[in-house]
Amino acid sequence: MGAIGTSADNALAESFNSTMKREVLRNRKVFDNPLQCRREVFRWCIRYNTQRRHS
């Protein structure tokens, strides 16, 4: 990560957020409660960092 306001940093963050939204929220409209949402995002983060292939 570079200096504050670096466009490359923003692109990385936007890409990460887009991937998370696409893979976690796929066909899901609503979570039953905030805890369920938090658990799903946490599971995804673990998978993203340890198992998922990055290209």
Features:
mainly alpha; 2 helices; 64% helix
Question: If you had to describe this structure to a student in words, what would you say it looks like?
Answer:
With 55 residues, the chain is mainly α. It has one domain (7-50). It has helices spanning 7-24, 34-50. The protein is globular, with a radius of gyration of 13 Å. The mean pLDDT is 83.
What's this, in brief?
This is Transposase. This protein has helices at 7-24, 34-50.
Uncertain stretches of 5 or more adjacent residues: none
Mean pLDDT: 83
Provide the structure class.
Answer: mainly alpha
Helix content: 55-70%
Number of helices: 2
State which percent range the strand residues make up: under 5%
- The termini sit apart by 18 Å
Sequence of secondary-structure elements: HH
- Which geometry do the CA atoms define? globular
Q: Count the beta strands.
A: 0
Number of domains: 1
Give the radius of gyration.
Answer: 13 Å
Query: Could you give a short account of the major beta sheet?
Result: none
Outline the fold blueprint:
Blueprint lengths: L6 H18 L9 H17 L5
